[in-house]
Structures are given as C-alpha cells and as structure tokens.
Amino acid sequence: MHQVFNENIKYYIFDIFPENDVIQAIFTRNGGISPAPWASLNQGGTTGDIRSRVVDNRRLAFNSVKLEVGSIFDVWQVHGTRIIYTNKPRNLDQPHEKADVIATDKPGISMFMRFADCVPILMFDPKNRVIAITHAGWQGTVKRIAGITVKYLVQNFRCKPEEILAGIGPSIGPDHYIIQKDVVDRVEKAFKGKSHLILHNSEGNTYLNLWEANRICLNEAGVQKIESSDLCTACNLDDWYSHRAENGRTGRFGVIFALK
Fold first, then answer.
1. pLDDT tops 90 at residue 45
2. Which of 76, 78, 192, 234 is most buried as measured by Cβ atoms within 10 A of its Cβ?
3. pLDDT tens-digit map of 242-260
4. Pick the CATH number of 2-172+224-259 from 3.40.630.30, 3.60.140.10, 3.40.640.10, 3.40.50.2300
C-alpha cells in the first residue's frame, strides 16, 4: 500500500490490485473543508458536520480520482451481513439501503463506504472482473463477514477463492482496541481454537486484532492473496478519523472502489 497525492487530496491505494483494472482510493482526513472536530475531508453525513460541507468534501474526493459523483453507490452501514449487488449508481434522491457489503461486475459504478475504526476490506477477482467492498467492525468480524463476502462471490460469479485478491485497509489496531468481556466471549465463540491469535491481554485489558481476525476469515474461505495496510487509525490521527481515540467527536474517511 502506498500514498498518492492528487488535487491536494491524500489517499492510499493497495499494491495488490492491478492499476489497469480498478480505481481505488482510501482517503485520509486531509484536503477537505470541514472544521474541527471533523477536520477536514469528512465524508460522514451523520457525524454532526454540515451537509453542504460533506457534499463538497465528497466532490473533492471523487474529483481527485477523476470520477463523477453521480457514479456513486453507497449504503447505510449497520454492522450486519447483508450484501447488495448493484449494476447501476444510486439515484441521489433515493434513500440508502441497509447493508455492509457492496458488489458489482459493472464498470461506471463507484462503490463507496465510510469508516472511522472499522475495517475496509476490498476484493477483486481479475478473471471474472468482479469487485466487492466490505465494512467489518467487531460485530461484522465475529459474524465472519469477510468469509460471507467470499462465499457470495463464489456462488454468484463463479469466482475461485484462490484467484481473489483482497486488501485489508486502515482501522483501529491491536495496540489500541480494548474490548470488554461480552465482546471477548463472542470473539472466542466465533474463532474457536484461534482466538489466541487475535486476542491479547496487557495490564488487565484485552485487546482485539481486527486485521488478523479478518485475515483468518479470508484464509479459511480460501483467499490467500491478501495485502494488509496495518495502519492504525487511533495511532495516526493526523491521517485518519478514529471514533475510539476521539471519543466519538470525529468524521469519517471515505473509500472508493470501481472497475475500469
């Protein structure tokens, strides 16, 4: 994964995805117009920021990767496992559907999600030319949403897991993500025999490694070609929004994924 600067916007792209096949951008919080505490490229419309600023920030982000805002397809993320396939952009006058995975095999659609500690997971099958973007917080992770996404691609597009490329994006890292006993119990139940790989204890607290948990889900679903950013949102507030580190008073960074 490496940084890109374009139109005064800073974003990251995965090295694993072929440049000629997809357009991708994991935007940092830099280059927008929102004031603190949303400074500055806030793309979350439910954070308390003024809608007109969010709309302008989205336009800046899309312009930086030479995409039309009208090509967007986004959803209302609810920490579930519903997957939506789309073959056209979302009419901007229509309400958002509730889902945490978007998939398409059609160029001209810019799949878009927002994050501030949860894990963005991008998948691309170069043979069948299908892409998916997944939102995986701790709830989606223990529901194994990454593996569910792989299964969907296999069943609906005849993808072979070993041919799928996957990128695990910036999120809260294992050094910052303290969880309570109820979450610990759910993690241990969901990852029987492997929870020791994703939970660690230090000074009376239990920490969760979302990156490793989702890597395990992808591996168990047959995906082996995985790139992980290992960038912690809570560690790097100059670049990322972090709901946990900023006590909920923050914005959302956007992620775009589209077929060329």
1. yes
2. 234
3. 999 999 999 999 999 999 9
4. 3.60.140.10
